[in-house]
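Lab notebook, bench 4. The sequencing result for the construct came back, and we need a structural model before the next group meeting so we can plan mutations. Quick request posted to the team channel:

Model the 3D structure of this chain.
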Amino acid sequence: MQMTDEQLKLITTKLSTIKDCSPFYAEKFKDIDPSDVRTQEDFEKLPFSEKDDLRRVYPLGLQAVPDEEVVRIHSSSGTTGTPVIIPYTAQDVTDWAIQFERCYRTAGITNLDRIQITPGYGLWTAGIGFQLGCERLGAMAIPMGPGNTEKQLKMMQDLHSTVITGTSSYALLLAEEISTRGLRDKLDLKKGVIGSERWGEKMRHRIANELGIEIFDIYGLTEIYGPGIGISCEAHHGMHVWEDFVYVEIVDPKTGEVLPDGEVGEIVLTTLRKQGAPLIRYRTHDLSRIIPGACTCEYGSHHPRIDTIVGRTDDMVKVKGCNMFPAQIEEVINFTEGTSSEYQMMIEAINGRDVITLLFETALTGEDRDKCERELEAIFKAKIGCTPEAKGVPIGELPRSEKKTKRIFDSRY
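Done. Here's the predicted structure in token form:
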């Protein structure tokens, strides 16, 4: 993607002071003179930043402003190691709210809407980010947080919520409860703003159909403000990323080479205005592509689009010589007639060989279910290259989550 003149100006301005204000980048760029960066080509020679780099400077080694300018900190979950602490200035918080308000407006949400916020609050960026944008928009925030489904449904009815926000896993759980209780006609929901994890088409259609809503994908990560740096629009063909706050690159995960628009690779992000913890060429490990050309919506000519996230570079598993990502498994589920959206895949080493068991939910029984299992195995073999043992289970039998749902379990290591 071609860097704009404004982006280059913001980047070179940030680079001119970054070694002086950031101990992290003083070390990272110790053999580099950032003032030498005058073009996009120069910028693409700078080293990447990695999450492990950020963990090494825990807790506040990323901080690039004096203590008195830090008004808040947020943190990654830290479920896979040392958490990453991100400090925010007052301007960072405002900039985040500006981006999030823009996300809501892009989804056609106005100050007349009532937004039920189900993501978690606290150190995690999700809940408070959704609320920031809601309040800046002037809509009514209903800050429920996750869990307590009984109360969620009561507030949804009593307060006439028009927008639901959350993870796809929790949105599905709510959709199933609403369907089971026959509540759909008692609700005023019109739109859903869903993010935090990737999800397949069958899951998307189930949530949209059972809730009767239009769904918008939202993108973000704690290290880069949080959710709200990008969202899908009414065209529903990719997510716009706000180019006045974030610069996007797609690189080859193995070589780090910048890829042409349209090719799938790893998303690399650079913050253009962030003060508390600026990041230069940060590797997200999310896999996507820049969609070439302008979108038909009002943001089309100004803000580039990334496609639906395919997966993560660290999500890949290798079984029987086959590399596979969750997105490929979801594609198999989607192609198999008779399956629902939920699945679990177990990978085990038994008697020296890898064995894959793929559980999937289905309403089918008896011979119809057996036929569906064989069909799924054949499609899996054709699309991915190896054959699992497919087992259909009743709808609702696999676990649901109020946060993110873990679907692949590898016990070989």
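The mean pLDDT is 91.
Will bring this to the meeting.
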